[in-house]
Amino acid sequence: MKKKVLVTGGAGFIASHIVDLLIENNYRVVVVDNLSSGRMENLNKKVKFYNLDITNQEGLAEMFKREKPDYVCHQAAQISVSLSVKDPLFDAQTNILGSLNLLQCCVNYQVQGIVFASSGGTIYGEPQQFPITEKYPFRPQSPYGISKVTVEHYLDFYRKNYNLPYVSLRYGNVYGSRQDPYGEAGVIAIFIQRMLKGEIPTINGDGEYIRDYIYVEDVARANLLALQNVLKLSKVIQGEEIEKEFKFNGFNLGVGRGASVNELFSLLKEIIKFPHPANYGPPRAGDLRKNILDCHLIKEVLGWQPEVDLSAGLKKTVHWFKENIY
User: Active site includes 144?
Assistant: First the structure.
C-alpha cells in the first residue's frame, strides 16, 4: 500500500509543488487548506482535498480519523511578517495554536513523522556572521519569526515526549511559479508582475538588502527527501554525539549565496527587456539588512543541493507569469 501524506496549505505556492512531487513519487496525498491564500487551480487533480483551517480542532481531528495519514508535511501558515507585527494574536492563533492542534492529531492518530516549514529568513534575527549555520542562536525580531521558533520548540518536545519524529526545514526566500504577486508576495513576483504590465517597480531604500533566494522546485525536493528520511534521521539524531549538531532537527534551506534587490532588478530587466530604470522609495521599517544561509548540513546529511541557479530560476518564473498571468 502506498504511503499517505497529509500536506497542510497544499493549495498554496510552495506546498502545491510539494504535492506534485509527492504524487510523482507514488505517495497518496491529502490536502488541508482554508484557501485564504491558496488557490484551487494550484491543486493536483489526484489529491483528496479538505477545505479546512488547521485551527479547527474538531474538523482536523475528524479528517485525521477518516484519512489516517502516515506522514504530515506542515506548510500552512500566516506568512506575512508585517501582518504579524500588526496583529500578533492572529499570527499566534494560526502559526502556534494551529500547529499545536496538528501535532496533537499526529500523536492521537499515530502519524509516523512530520516535516515542518520553518523560516531561515526570520528565526536568526539580524546575524553578525555570514553565512548563518544551524548553530547560530535563535533571535527572531517579529511575531512571525517567534511563532516559527516556538513551533520548533514544540516539535522537539513532541519528539522527546511522544516519540514523534520530525524535520524542520528553515527556508530562505522562496520564489518561482505560482507565487501570488499580491499581498505579502516576494519581491521577485511583485517585480515580474509590474514589469510585464509596463509599470516601473519601486525598490525600497538603497536596494542593497541581501537575501538567499531559492527556487520553489528545489524546496519541494528538500521536503521529499526530509519525508523519506524522517524516521532514519530521528534515530541518528538521538545519538548523543550528533545531538548538538542538529538544533531541533533543523536544516537551513537556501543556496548559500546572497543577492541584492538591485541585482534582482538588473537580471529581470535583462530577461524581460524592460526599458526603464527602477524607482527608489524609502526603506521598509523592520527589514533585515542581510540574510545568507549556510546549507552544508542538509547537503551532508540528506544529499540535497539546489539545482536551479538564480538566473535560470528567474527565467522559469518569468516564463510562468507570461503563460499564466498575462
Answer: yes
Per-residue pLDDT of the chain (326 residues; tens, 9 = 90+): 899 999 999 999 999 999 999 999 999 999 999 999 999 999 999 999 999 999 999 999 999 999 999 999 999 999 988 899 999 999 999 999 999 999 999 999 999 999 999 999 999 999 988 999 999 999 999 999 999 999 999 999 999 999 999 999 999 999 999 998 886 678 999 999 999 999 999 999 999 999 999 999 999 999 999 999 998 876 665 554 455 555 568 999 999 999 999 999 999 999 999 999 999 999 987 788 999 999 999 999 999 999 999 999 999 999 999 999 76
Question: What is the residue-wise DSSP string for 241-284?
Answer: HHHTTSGGGEEEES-S--EEHHHHHHHHHHHHT--SPPEEEPPP
Residue 133 DSSP symbol: P
CA distances from 87 to 180, 250, 262, 295 (A): 22, 27, 31, 32
Q: Is the peptide bond before 131 cis (omega within 30 degrees of 0)?
A: yes
Element (H, E) at 161: helix 143-162
Give the Cα separation of 244 and 255 in Å (integer): 23
Single out the catalytic residue among 144, 158, 213, 215: 144
CA-based nearest residue to 169, from 232, 226, 101, 244: 226
Place of cell 492518530: 109
Classified as helix, coil or strand, 19 is: helix
Cα 183 vs. chain centroid, distance in angstroms?
16
Which domains does the chain show, CATH number per domain? 4-173+213-253 (3.40.50.720), 176-212+255-324 (3.90.25.10)
Joined together, the cell numbers standing for residue 49 give: 482535498
Q: Which of 201, 197, 149, 172 has its CA nearest to residue 288? A: 172
* CA–CA separation, 17 and 214 (whole Å): 14
In angstroms, rounded to a whole number, what is the distance separating the alpha carbons of residues 88 and 144? Answer: 8
